[in-house]
Design a protein that fits this description.
globular, 7-stranded mixed sheet, Rossmann fold, single chain, alpha/beta, 22 strands, 9-stranded mixed sheet
């Protein structure tokens, strides 16, 4: 005899529009579980019913409610919650011993009045570590993309895939997912199609494009075929110590790949081109930072065409692939030690959804030929971040999970900056977005620089001795970027 499925008993935290939408969806589908109660802090809601479910409160009383109505899972459906409130709610639910705690994304990811169960996910440390995000009215921000064709390079990466999720909700006509990594494109396309099945952006055409930005003929061909109105250029190699060991490939991919798509976008009469940059491009000491510094100037040099070419620069995002949060997570789960490079090391952090929302906003309000920076708030001490993560997993720093200082890795700084000494941040009138005014002293002769770098990155029979010459690469870059680290012991090849 087939065993009858046990449905999960669910509490929804937050009896607003989002909570009601999710309760109604669970009830309609029937097999996902049963919503037993809402919990809310609003006295006007406590004692009422929403979607046929009673509302209890305040949230701090959850353990008492659990004694009357046992539950397995909790869904936090307060997408506008401040970070300190989210932390308080999480630890209250944790003490109540729910088997699973899920979270509906921040309000920036949800079009007003439209929330879906598929958008929830199990809560993790990055949701509690970040500051309270800048509220972005996504529907209004995406108005300039309604009915447009939008192409994302690096669409399988952390920022690219989040841009795709948010664009899906905004009425984009065609969404082109460009990447050279087949697996990452497969994953994000599959996720977007599942969202469409649940009614999110169901009218948008999703088009995966596998290709290499280093193939200029293909890039020109595909952009002429696709007729993209707006391009978000996220694709880049980004891991600082790894690229110090592979400097030629860093410059080849990040600089020449950017040059190829800028040229193709200009020739294909793209309307807007938004380049995703990094704080490591500011007075860079690493090859990665230098490559992004040059790439910024490549993008801005394309602004003589019909398109608006702009740069959006920001710091670290919590939880991106290969970043510090997933590394700390693995180290904690194996019992430590958690490794930090320097006790005084700081970084700017924001969540991936907040960064993507602000990038989309900047892409709409920004002007060509301009660098923009996202307001990252105050820098965070990496040591404090590690300690917070250890506590999230229920351990005490040092006494249970040790911390180990390993020293700065090649190409790393103790502190990063969002603008250089020759740049001045100015208000744009839009929350969370600043523009940079420069004095031109950092500008590089891009055609000359690319001409000097090309025989190092691409084989040429008459310049074969230059091919893959790391010392020549660093010397050429240091002539135009004096802050770049010297490496006297660097091998020639």
């Amino acid at each position: 005899m087939k065993k009858k499925r046990q449905h999960a008993s669910i509490f929804i935290i937050g009896a607003g529009f989002a909570g009601e939408e999710i309760a109604t969806e669970i009830k309609k589908k029937g097999i996902l579980g049963r919503v037993e109660a809402f919990l809310d802090d609003d006295p006007a809601k406590i004692g009422t019913t929403r979607a046929g479910v009673p509302v209890f409160g305040p949230i701090s009383n959850v353990e008492k409610v659990m004694k009357q109505i046992p539950a397995d899972e909790a869904i936090i459906a307060i997408p506008g919650a401040r970070q300190e409130d989210l932390r308080r709610i999480y630890w209250t639910l944790k003490r109540a011993d729910f088997r699973k705690i899920r979270l509906l994304p921040q309000i920036s990811q949800i079009i007003e009045g439209d929330a879906h169960l598929i958008q929830t996910r199990e809560i993790d440390p990055r949701d509690l570590l970040a500051r309270s995000p800048v509220p972005i009215p996504l529907k209004e921000s995406l108005e300039y993309l309604k009915g447009r064709r939008v192409l994302i390079t690096g669409a399988g990466g952390s920022i690219g895939s989040e841009l795709a999720r948010q664009l899906l909700t905004g009425g984009t006509q065609r969404l082109y997912l460009f990447d050279h990594d087949e697996n990452s494109i497969y994953e994000i396309e599959k996720e977007l199609r599942l969202l469409q099945e649940e009614g999110i952006g169901k009218n948008a055409a999703i088009v995966p494009v596998i290709g290499d930005l280093l193939d200029p003929e293909f890039v020109a061909f595909i952009l002429n075929r696709l007729k993209a109105d707006v391009i978000f250029h996220c694709a880049a190699y980004k891991h600082v110590p790894m690229l110090e060991m592979n400097p030629v490939e860093a410059v080849k991919n990040n600089v020449f790949g950017t040059y190829n798509i800028v040229q193709a976008a200009s020739d294909a009469h793209c309307r807007r081109f938004v380049f995703i940059s990094t704080d490591k491009a500011v007075e860079p000491v690493s090859i990665y930072g230098a490559s992004k510094n040059v790439a910024e100037q490549v993008v801005l040099s394309g602004n003589g065409s019909d398109a608006e070419f702009m740069v959006v620069r920001f710091g670290n995002v919590l939880g991106s692939r290969g970043s510090i949060v997933p590394l700390f997570e693995k180290q904690i789960l194996k019992g430590g030690p958690v490794t930090i490079t320097h006790p005084d090391c700081t970084r700017f952090f924001m969540t991936i959804p907040e960064a993507a929302s602000l990038v989309l906003k900047a892409g709409g309000v920004g002007k060509g030929g301009t660098r923009y920076i996202l307001d990252m708030g105050e820098p965070v001490f990496i040591k404090e971040l590690a300690e917070q993560m250890i506590r999230f997993y229920g351990f005490e720093p040092e006494s249970e999970i040790p911390l180990s200082v390993i020293g700065l890795r090649p190409g790393e700084k103790i502190h990063e900056r969002l603008w250089s000494k020759t740049e001045v941040p100015e208000d744009t009138g839009f929350t969370g977005i600043l523009k940079l005014r420069g004095n031109g002293k950092d500008e590089i002769d891009i055609p000359l620089l690319l001409s000097n770098l090309k025989p190092i990155c691409f084989y040429s029979r008459d310049r074969h001795e230059d091919y893959r010459n790391r010392r020549s690469l660093r010397r050429i870059l240091k002539e135009v970027i004096p802050s770049l680290d010297e490496k006297y012991d660097e091998p020639k090849y």
